[in-house]
Amino acid sequence: MGFAEFPGDAGWRHVDARDGFEAAWFRGESGGGRRIDGTAVAVEDGLSWAVRYRILLGPTGRTLRAEVESRSVGGRLTVVLEADGEGSWLVDGAAAPELDGCLDVDLEASALTNAFPVRRLGLAVGERASAPAAYVRAADATVGRLEQTYLRVEDEAAGPAYDYEAPAFDFACRLRYDASGLALDYPGIAVRVR
To answer: For the whole model, what pTM was predicted?
Structure first.
């Protein structure tokens, strides 16, 4: 399935797991890539945090760079992830072999980043794929590998739907997307409002 271009901007209200909001802005880059700038601010488990990010996707939708700044009561932390688009990563300039094979970044703070594997994979109804990601935590900007899978299920009126699983968190849900591949409903996490 081909997706429409990203809109100029998008916003999500974070619900259930945390209270907050995320906004993102999209811009085309030379060579067919995309730059995404965004901010998420929330209160979760009694802790306030803010995450600002800038993500560069290559023309095939693979993450090439992510700059993530996290602020909480613990202070301000920044991490920079760089990828070659083939599955090798640097975190703050150091090789990160534990991320080998990951093609996407996934930010704990973001409802947006689940769009990356969905758009990149282009699964047909009934197809399932593993999409491990370089996962950045919201409160402390630590980076690790997140194993996750997507199963494309029958489309719904608003757009495609996927059954999503992240075994490390014992989490599974049905994600609903719009025609551009942005999440409309991320159960327990966020709802698209713009």
So the answer is: 0.97
